[in-house]
Amino acid sequence: MYDTHMHTRFSTDSTMSMEDAVRRAGELGLGIIITEHMDLNYPEPQAFIFNVDEYFDAYQPCRNDNVLLGIEIGMRGETEPDNRRIVEGHSFDYVIGSIHIVDGVDIYQESFYQGRTKQDVYSRYFSAMLDCVTKYDWIDSLGHIDYIARYARFQDVDIYLDEFREPLEKILGLLASRNKAMEINTRRLGDKKALEALIPIYRRFKELGGQFVTIGSDAHNPKDIGKNFEQAMSLAQICNLKPVFFRERRMEYWKEGV
Predict the structure, then answer these.
(1) Sign of the CA dihedral with 10 first, then 39, 172, and 93 last
(2) Is residue 47 helix, strand or coil?
(3) Residue 175's domain spans which residues?
(4) Total domain count, the chain
(5) Residue 223: which CATH number?
(6) Distance between CA atoms of 33 and 12, rounded to whole angstroms?
(7) Cβ neighbourhood burial of 27 (10 Å; 0-12, 13-18, 19+)
(8) Where are the beta strands (DSSP E) in 127-229?
(9) 39 lies in a domain?
(10) Exposure pattern of 221-237 as b/e (b: 16+ CB <10 Å)?
(11) Helix, strand or coil for residue 239?
């Protein structure tokens, strides 16, 4: 079993050491994939980018069957060529494609929501996601489809399939047609309401031909590694989706899976 999404000191928002990540994963009996943030042209200069050569120099000695090296690409249409060159030029095990920036604004920022409705904001989010999923046909898995729900300033932040069916079905169908994985990001799965809202989305992914999910905690500190994995595995089982991980960009099944 692998926690396929976590950040250490090479990510702007994390100070976790590789040693602490490996130690905690060992306690849990998990394999791990380090996936540092690469958000080119981030609104704050020099934030959420890292020196990839230094990353491999530092972590290559730690690489083994239980410790793999990946990257989380912040997808934007205009940065696709540069992001592709970074990935093609290095020996990553795994590539997550995520949406963090919409219309030039980090969706973590309160300003992204001011004076706007949930329908407007989420529609822009899914429009950006569809555009990037279309262009980034080389990612391994789509990261945290519910990322916006972490930070949205609305009374009800959850994503409902019936509320955004048209853009979601386009995104899910495209991923399925390319045999790509969807991430089950465990960050919000401790919230029963969030979990219940996500089930129809992953079930629809399966109905549209999707087969595979990656499971990742998005941990930025050791205590969050493997967090809410029981709920994630239950979601995968309910939706009849197969948990996988990637080694040398090739999909592999968990030894203990659903």
Answers:
(1) negative
(2) coil
(3) 2-253
(4) 1
(5) 3.20.20.140
(6) 17
(7) exposed
(8) 141-142, 181-185, 212-216
(9) yes
(10) ebebbbbbbebbbebbe
(11) coil
Which pair of tokens denotes residue 249?
């960009």
Q: What is the mean pLDDT of residues 23-27?
A: 98
CA 256 to chain centre: 21
> Coil, helix or strand for 160?
coil
Closest by CA position to 33, among listed 11, 74, 65: 65
Phi, psi at residue 73, to the nearest 5°? -85, 125
The string of pLDDT tens digits covering residues 131-187 is 999 999 999 999 999 999 999 999 999 999 999 999 999 999 999 999 999 999 999
Question: Is the full-model pTM beyond 0.85?
Answer: yes
Tokens 């996601």 sit at which residue? 129
Give the separation between CA 48 and CA 51, rounded to whole angstroms: 11
| The amino acid at 81 | P
For 124, the token pair is: 């822009």
**DSSP 3-state assignment of 144?**
coil
Report the candidate in 19, 10, 56, 64 with the shortest Cα–Cα distance to residue 37: 10
- Strand partners for 31: 2
- How many residues are listed for the chain in this entry? 258
Report the first-to-last Cα separation within the chain, whole angstroms.
10
Instruction: For helices 229-238 and 192-207, give the axis angle rounded to 10 degrees.
Output: 40
| Spatial contact of 100 and 74, defined as CB atoms under 8 Å apart | yes
Q: CA-CA distance, 96 to 242, in Å (whole number)?
A: 17
SS3 sequence of 101-139: EECCEECCCHHHCCCCCHHHHHHHHHHHHHHHHHHCCCC
3-class SS shares of the chain: helix, strand, coil, % to 5: 40, 20, 40
